[in-house]
Amino acid sequence: MARATIIAASLMPIAAGAAAQDVAMTFDAASRRLETTSPALAAADHAEDAARETAAAVATLRRPVVTASAQYIEYQKTLAVDLTGQKEDARDATQDFLSGIPMTVPPAFQQIASDIVGRIGQALPGLFTAIPDQLSYRYRDDVFRPTVQGVLPLYSGGAIPAIQRGARAAAEIAAARAAQGRDLAQLNLIRVYFGEQAAAALAASARESRDALDRLLSDVRKMEAAGVVAHARTLEAQVARDSAERTWQRAAIAHDGARGDLARLLEVDRVRPTTGLFVVSHPLAPAGSFTGGEARLPQTRQADAAGAVARAGVDLARSRYRPQAFAFGEYNLNRSNALPTEPDWVAGVGVRYTLLSNVDRRHALNAAKANAAAADDAAREARKSAITATLRAWDLVESARRAFLLTDSSLAAAQENLRVQEIAFREGEATMTAVLAAEAALATARTQRAAIAYEYDLALAALLSASGQLDTFADHIAGADIHLPTDARP
């Protein structure tokens, strides 16, 4: 007992000093702070921005692609021409020509002409031998080639629209994931924020039980000194008080851990929630009023967008069966220094069709169709799951509401029972066991009240999240007619 008392006494100044530095924060303020401090939310927003920028980038795929390039080229060209056949043809033609010359002169001069032709005929082989059998020409130069090229897609077989639709659907997936991340972060905040409230209530209840048993132990000691009760009753009270002390210490440590979780989540040193656990005493709207909005749920939006991506994949796979048409052009900006074979400019249209691909297009199309069917089935399943989750959450909210309303009478009865048992014990008409049982019943009633209120708040958050209305959670807080106090803290 002495050790427990020393530990408790040492904990109290530390807790008091820490409480002096607490930052009071409502749930709305905590929600706003989470929006600015959560790395997960920031990452989801960046991913959404990246997906939207990607969709904007491919939205202009139908525009022409215009590029400018410049090249400096140093080249050498060698040309070789075979003259063997031409030499033989020329020699034969010359011989034929010379042999016909004597016949074209008067008879008196034919002998002289024949002698001249004979001498020339004898000299012809030597003349033609001087002509090489092959003529070679080598040219070396440098060229600067600045050009502008342009390509305009005319028909892509459906590939461009499919890519654009897929990019827009991917952006929707990123947006849905960001929304789902915000919902999860909000649910986690609700769990941690009101969990700190529940831990505080449990610690406060444990402290009240410890203090009550402290008073009971003091009374029993006085009664033992007066000879009214036996020493065994004092030992029984001592055991109960020590047990309550241990329970309080465990609850205090758990509460301190809950406070630390909330502080780390909001990135502050210490925080004290000022929005207490709450319950709406009147029933919620019928469960059917929370269904029907499945299309706006993040998980459903993701499934629908995934289906759009899959259908775009089907169109893209079909486009591989179709031809592609494009227009192209090129203009040489330095025509005076161009290669001999280069045009000044060129323009035209082209068609390209894949006759044989190293990827089986039929199997690729079948795979895309299977992915689209799977995505459609997943979207339907997401809607069914959302409806089921909504109805279950509504049942949990209603169950917690009814259970909480019953705690009022239970708490009042436990308080009255303890008061009666304590009076009866002092008068000698009740046993110590009855008093301890009454105190335990009161502690149970207090903890159940806080626990059920926490259960109600979590179930309500789950219901609103499942029905796509989590942003109205603050409205339910404002409209609640039962708020547990936040000042009764350990």
From TrEMBL:
Its main location: membrane. Residues 1-20 form the signal peptide. It is found in: Cell outer membrane. InterPro entries: OMP_efflux (IPR003423), TolC-like (IPR051906). The keyword ATP-binding does not apply. Keywords: Cell outer membrane, Membrane, Signal, Transmembrane, Transmembrane beta strand, Transport. This is TolC family protein. The keyword Transmembrane applies. It comes from the Bacteria. Belongs to the outer membrane factor (OMF) (TC 1.B.17) family.
